[in-house]
Design a protein that fits this description.
The chain has helices spanning 2-17, 74-87, 115-118, 122-135, 202-218, 235-249, 252-256, 321-326, 351-357, 410-413, and strands spanning 21-37, 40-58, 61-68, 110-111, 141-158, 165-180, 186-194, 221-222, 227-234, 280-282, 305-309, 312-313, 340-342, 362-365, 368-375, 380-385, 389-393, 396-401, 404-409, 417-420, 424-428, 440-444, 446-457. With 463 residues, it is an alpha+beta fold. Strands 8, 9, 14, 15, 16, 17, 18, 19, 20 and 23 form a ten-stranded mixed β-sheet that branches. α1 (2-17) packs parallel to α2 (74-87) and α4 (122-135) packs parallel to α5 (202-218). One of its GO terms (biological process) is proteolysis.
Length: 463
């Protein structure tokens, strides 16, 4: 990273020497992927990439561009900057555009890449699928999934400062699905995420799949009628709920454009919107989270940022300068590099303890599939359970269920939480679009919510 920083600072000096106002952002990735399909390794690939993003501003006009980056292309990039700046005269004025401000200045760089991930031997990744295949040799299952691992970095500077801000880290994320060929092709899933290879636990993944397999093959499958149910969501399912809820709650840009589920007239920072047992924070210094990044890609310094405190809305992310300019606001964070944490409670934290705690009919949902908004303004959504939905009663698993459909609202769910586990788990929330950028939510291992609306199931003849 040191060489990259020096190169970006040299390019920034070029901006200043030519009286050009602008921002330069560097991003890179090293990605390794092993994919398994129908119990065979179908892909084993590695790739690397570097890009530079150029944003220039002159008065009320702005222009941007991007290109591949290498240390050998510095002269070419200078030519690109010059040509781009010449074109800015032809750009329309942006009425609300305000002058560029300096990015944060200070020692906030963080370089924590685990080279065991950056240079991972693909045999380590393949061995996971081999171990699962060995465990289920006699069970007639098909294995599918992916093991992704890699390194990513970003570096930002603008013409109002002298030094770059940068971050470099690593991540792995794993998803494995078993299809039970002798059992109506029912499915099971296990997943894992981490920032150091030492956090990868092959035995734990295999054990979880075996536990779920035994439950699904030794209990009967039943159906449930539509209605309101007490539901225990696994960390994976609850993280999905939190992630989607966050799009409609924590992003100030959506709030200002009235695309949020919050009413600008009645629900503001300081309003109580959720139950008192909900506290959510973004704190890059918290040792309990993954991917604590003290600087944003937008060049802002990041520190503890409470979002929900005992149900009260404490903050919203304002990450985009253009939106902030439009509404006369200040950029206060960078949601793109946040690592949200839902604080724990005092509920059960192991699978067995969770099952024993359910003394009346309760549905266990391990994963929510195809979640989407049905009415964003009201925070209403739909989604289906998948990979092992159980009916729990009198402290034991009574049966496994057809997948159930949820049609509910985040307002109702986050105001009806009975308990949250006393221990947390890390859940991957990154996607595969664009350049590598690790993302996760840290949340309780299990969360019990009352009066969840189930409107249908996947049982034959049911919708």
């Amino acid at each position: 990273m040191k060489t990259v920083n020096q190169s970006l600072e040299a390019l920034n000096d070029f901006l200043k020497e030519n009286s050009i106002t602008g921002t330069l952002t560097y991003r890179s990735e090293i990605s390794h992927l092993v994919r398994c399909g129908r119990s065979q390794i179908s892909l084993n690939v590695s790739e690397e990439g570097e890009k530079i993003f150029i944003e220039l501003q002159k008065g009320k006009k702005k222009i941007s561009s991007s290109s591949t980056f290498s240390l050998e292309k510095i002269a070419e990039i200078k030519e690109q900057i010059t040509a781009l700046y010449e074109k800015i005269e032809f750009m329309p004025e942006v009425e609300h555009l305000t002058p560029l401000k300096p990015i944060h200045e200070g020692d906030t760089d963080k370089h924590v890449a685990d080279k065991k991930i950056s240079n991972i031997d693909s045999n380590i990744m393949i061995d996971l699928f081999k171990a699962i295949d060995h465990e289920f040799t006699n069970d007639d299952v098909e294995i599918s999934g992916a093991f992704s691992a890699g390194e990513y970095s970003y570096c930002v500077i603008n013409s109002l400062v002298d030094k770059c801000l940068s971050y470099q880290g690593t991540d792995f994320n794993i998803e494995v699905v078993l299809q039970l060929l002798k059992h109506d092709k029912k499915e099971l899933r296990s997943a894992s995420v981490g920032e150091n290879l030492s956090q990868f636990n092959q035995a734990e993944i295999v054990k979880e799949l075996r536990t779920l397999f035994d439950i699904k093959t030794t209990t009967t499958r039943e159906d449930v009628e539509p209605g309101e149910y007490d539901v225990v969501f696994s960390a994976h399912a609850f993280a999905e709920l939190t992630n989607y809820m966050g799009y409609l709650t924590f992003h100030g840009e959506a709030y200002q454009y009235q695309m949020s589920m919050l009413n600008k007239e009645t629900q503001k920072v300081g309003s109580k919107i959720f139950g008192e047992n909900i506290t959510i924070v973004d704190d890059p210094s918290d040792s309990d989270i993954l991917f604590g990044r003290p600087v944003g890609i937008n060049g802002i310094s990041r520190s503890i940022f409470p979002l929900i405190k005992n149900g009260v809305l404490s903050n919203m992310f304002y990450s985009d300068k253009d939106t902030c300019d439009r509404f006369s606001l200040e950029v206060n964070n960078d949601a793109n590099v946040s690592s949200i944490k839902v604080e724990t409670g005092i509920g059960p934290s192991s699978f067995d303890e969770m099952i024993k705690s359910c003394t009346k009919p309760t549905i266990f949902i391990p994963y929510i599939h195809y979640m989407n908004f049905t009415n964003p303004a009201k925070g209403e959504f739909t989604g289906t359970s998948r990979f092992g939905t159980f009916l729990v009663n009198e402290g034991k698993i009574q049966s496994h269920l057809y997948n159930v459909r949820l049609n509910d609202s985040y307002m109702d769910l986050f105001n009806n939480i009975e308990w949250l586990s006393s221990q947390s788990a890390h859940i991957n929330t990154s996607d595969t679009y664009g350049m590598r950028m690790a993302s996760s939510i840290t949340c309780p291992k299990f969360v019990k919510i009352n009066k969840v609306k189930i409107t249908g199931t996947s049982a034959p003849g049911r919708g």
